[in-house]
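Format is chain and fold; as here:
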Amino acid sequence: MANRALRAAQRTAQQAVLPRLLAGDEVECPVCESEFRRFAGRICPRCLSPERQRLVWLYLASTGIEDPSLAVLHLAPEPPYRDRLKNRPTYVAGDLDPGEHGVEKLDATALPFEEGAFDRVIVNHVLEHIPDDRRAIAEFHRVLKPGGRLITQHPVDWDLDRTDEDPSITDPGERVRRFNQRDHVRVYGRDFEDRLREPGFSVTAVDYFAQLPDDVIKRCRPSRRIIHDCVR
């Protein structure tokens, strides 16, 4: 909890100082719709969204995510997205360890919602932390309406045919060596899409960066990563 409070304080301090230091109109963050002389390294000076979040938001916006009639479930919610989406009739932000106002305590493997409760589920960089990721994916499928969409972006090693995982590895150092981070339990390979399909999703791997005009790339500076758009 102390680390979380420290991160929150650092975030607040950055948001107070960086926009003034980098005032201008050369670049634009699509998430908070703010303009700056340049980004603060890779992050937005105001909402602190990194490159990958700016890419995913551009894609979410292209799918009509800002339609207020859509019921949205947002797990491990990115604060900049939450700020854009929260003022609608049905928006649920949840995390296993919330620690922030407006975020409910939710277990992705046992969601307390009826079948077909949501039009969209947004989950990014979460499944590599969950031991029973297949159960979580099945839950995302269950709580979506027919035709509803799971929009998700996760790190995948495209050189791996199969996901590298070993539930017996609990040592943080070994997890860093094997899975790149102390709280990761796997590195996904190209079979990640097969896992998404298991409960019945129709899965499209979207290289949205390749679809963006050059002027949007230059102005918004998103990173190039695959987004998975999964239809129930």
Remarks:
- Residues 2-21 form the longest helix (20 residues).
- The radius of gyration is 18 Å.
- The chain has a mean pLDDT of 92.
